[in-house]
């Protein structure tokens, strides 16, 4: 073992009944940013994602596609894998629930639960929603538009009667409530925590954890007429990937309990109620935190197959650029809240914040250095208060960003960074280095040096969110690639005067809307992307 602290972060595993859209991208993006941040902050990180391939929903999707579930899951799982490169995600493992290692882990967990008398055989009669892969009680159902009964999520329900194994969830009510009390930040945001607590206070029923009416699942050990309930199967992925059932393995010892399961608000109950109960029942520790983020709508509408409005992340990246998409998804809404994606707002942020605030700052400073300092890092003279204040705000930034990241408050982390971006722009205007060129060239060098140090800090801290652009910023400052972790922040690792610099290039291009086809030729269209920045 490395002796470094560890950080284990997971995405939900995605159902392979559908192609990936920005909702899925969002969950994984949040985890990627945390994984990158923690690696730069000296942690040994494991970042897991994957696909949830069993259950009735996937079985039905395969049937509709006219192929076997095996063939179907291979194909759709690959779409999710392909998305990782499109978004520049740095997961350390990709798990598929159809893998042998997972079957082994699930069956071992089942066996433990059975041996501890946490599972018993009975029969189930009740409502089931395939879309949610969830059981509902009569009282939870709501009236649909045609007088039919629907799940609270709006999913259609069907009546199911079959022999089934049950998990003694009802026996876990008090212990779960105690666990939430002892771990006030187990569920975040707080409003979601309150929902979970009141759900559990409302009373828990034993949970059906096996099905007999279809076969696409992991067989129950010793009773192959049953396949495991897909959520028991799916949740187990988080421990499969670190070596369960070998709880003594180095990876299990290093990474369990997980630091964070990132989930959407729709699947919080499974993660914050069922999962800790399964784990405690098996004698394992629950994860440290479950964070439930909000949902995206698109231009005010729910993302849905029937509306055909699901934005393909690939298209978004083609239009705006990879880093730009990463930035705006995390910047646009307070993490935890629902958000609406609008192209107008996206362009506003790309041009206003990335191209103008940050891109122009770097571009202005670096071109001035190229022109007036012989293309190398200038030599600073004595600092005045304005210089010292800007540099101090850079040094304070890591603590602020770290505590926001630890609370999964990405919008806050970015706001803290932007406070310094704006301060730097204010400083440029006040210090007016272009005017100093003639009147006081030594002072100009100091001002440009202070600004370069500021850009270095901003570049270092922006790496998790906009990795490629931040790397280009740091390249232009000739920061050694080995000196880009957070250990290199601060004055001790400041830029060395005299270091030769490469020719400055714009880092964040402005987004210019391409002209509609019909109008082309009337007047010269600007390039689709590119220009200043
Ligand atoms: N397979 C289960 C998870 C099992 S984890 C042990 C599942 N899969 S899913 O593919 O339906 O959803 C995965 C994630 O995508 C969820 O966290 C969900 O909240 C997220 N999103 C799906 N659509 C979304 C939006 N429109 N907006 C934001 N996130 C959304 O559930």
The CATH class label of the domain at 356-493 is Mainly Alpha
Silhouette: elongated
Largest pleated sheet: 7 strands, parallel
Summarize model confidence as the mean pLDDT: 94
Small molecules held by this entry: 5'-O-[(L-methionyl)-sulphamoyl]adenosine
Question: Roughly how many Å apart are the termini?
Answer: 44 Å
Helix proportion:
40-55%
Task: Let me know the CATH homologous superfamily of the domain at 356-493.
Answer: Isoleucyl-tRNA Synthetase, Domain 1
CATH topology of the domain at 356-493: Isoleucyl-tRNA Synthetase, Domain 1
> By helix and strand content, what is the structural category?
alpha/beta
The stretches of 5 or more residues where confidence is low (pLDDT under 50) are: 519-533
Report the C-alpha radius of gyration, rounded.
Answer: 26 Å
Q: How much of the residues is beta strand, in percent?
A: 15-25%
Number-wise, the strands total 21
The oligomeric state is: single chain
Summed up, the helix count is 18
| CATH architecture field of the domain at 356-493 | Orthogonal Bundle
Question: What does this molecule look like?
Answer:
With 533 residues, the chain is an alpha/beta fold. It has a domain at 356-493: Isoleucyl-tRNA Synthetase, Domain 1. 46% of the residues lie in helices and 16% in strands. It contains 18 helices and 21 strands. The strands form 6 sheets. Strands 1, 2, 3, 4, 10, 15 and 16 form a 7-stranded parallel β-sheet that branches. Strands 6-5-9-11 form a 4-stranded antiparallel β-sheet, covered by helices on one side. Strand 2, helix 1 and strand 3 form a beta-alpha-beta unit. It is elongated, with a radius of gyration of 26 Å. The model is unreliable at 519-533 (pLDDT under 50). The protein binds 5'-O-[(L-methionyl)-sulphamoyl]adenosine. 5'-O-[(L-methionyl)-sulphamoyl]adenosine (MSP) binds next to strand 2, helix 1, helix 7 and strand 15. Residues 12-15, 23-24, 26-27, 52, 234-235, 237, 263-264, 266-267, 295-296, 303 line the site of 5'-O-[(L-methionyl)-sulphamoyl]adenosine.
